[in-house]
Amino acid sequence: MNEAAAVSVFLLAQNRLLREALTRILSKKSHISVVGSCALSSTSLNEVLAANPDVLIMDSFTTNPMHLQFVREIQQQMASVKLVMIGMDPNGEDFLQAIREGALGYVLKDAAADEVVGAVRLVANGDAVCPPQLCALLFRFVATQNQLPNFRVRSTLGLTNREQQLVGLISRGLTNKEIASQLQLAEQTVRNHVHRMLRKVGVSHRLAVVEMCRVQGMPI
């Protein structure tokens, strides 16, 4: 982008005080212009489209259907907009989903003002930014992608992409606790995934799931 031009930013946040605080902070920067702000609602999509910002900051991003639907509609109708998500907690699921949805920036709710400003500047220039504590998660996630997804495993055994990811980690000898730590999930969540896999495949042991996936051509 042209460095001489101000980056136009739209703030989408449920909390009015947060919107006003971020507006004051960002408006003080000569290279940033806040072109609108609102809470997520049935009319917010049209408000963002009308403002046509370079960067959209979305507060408290989660994987709930309303957030995901909004982000996907924005991406479809305004492909050029750069997304900066503010996550409530260092939640691995929310972070990875934000990346899948096209976010170039991800900051946490306790980020300093300068971090938010820096994130806007970086994504506006086509760079990416995420909290240091989540970078390792992203690297580990990418490292497992050579195993995923496998269409034959999905169609024959009914295993989702997430379940196939767990199969790859199980094949490396990781326990449920170790998998939970690596993917930043609750151990009970991993346990539930494993139980569903056993039920789908019709076996009683997790290593049998690994062997069934190998038979179906999964490269593990």
Concise overview:
This protein is of the alpha/beta class and 220 residues long. The chain has eleven helices and five strands, in the order βαβαβαβαβααααααα.
Explain this structure.
The chain has 220 residues and is an alpha/beta fold. The chain folds into two domains: 7-131, Response regulator (Rossmann fold); 144-215, Arc Repressor Mutant, subunit A. It has eleven helices and five strands. β3 (55-59), α3 (65-77) and β4 form a beta-alpha-beta unit. The longest helix is centred in the C-terminal third of the chain and has 15 residues, at 187-201. The chain is elongated and about 60 Å long.
Topology record:
Layout: E1 7-12, H1 16-27, E2 32-38, H2 44-51, E3 55-59, H3 65-77, E4 82-87, H4 92-100, E5 105-108, H5 113-124, H6 132-143, H7 151-157, H8 161-171, H9 176-183, H10 187-201, H11 206-215
Parallel strand pairs: 1-2, 1-3, 3-4, 4-5
Give the name of the CATH architecture of the largest domain: 3-Layer(aba) Sandwich
Shape: elongated
What is the CA-based Rg, rounded?
Answer: 20 Å
Taking pLDDT < 50 over at least 5 consecutive residues as the criterion, the unreliable ranges are none
CATH superfamily of the largest domain: Response regulator
Distance between the termini: 43 Å
Helices and strands, in order, run as EHEHEHEHEHHHHHHH
Q: Count the strands?
A: 5
Q: How would a crystallographer describe the biggest sheet? A: 5 strands, parallel
Annotation field: number of helices: 11
CATH topology title of the largest domain? Rossmann fold
The helix fraction, in percent, is 40-55%
Strand content: 5-15%
Largest sheet: spatial strand order: 2-1-3-4-5
CATH class of the largest domain: Alpha Beta
Secondary structural class? alpha/beta
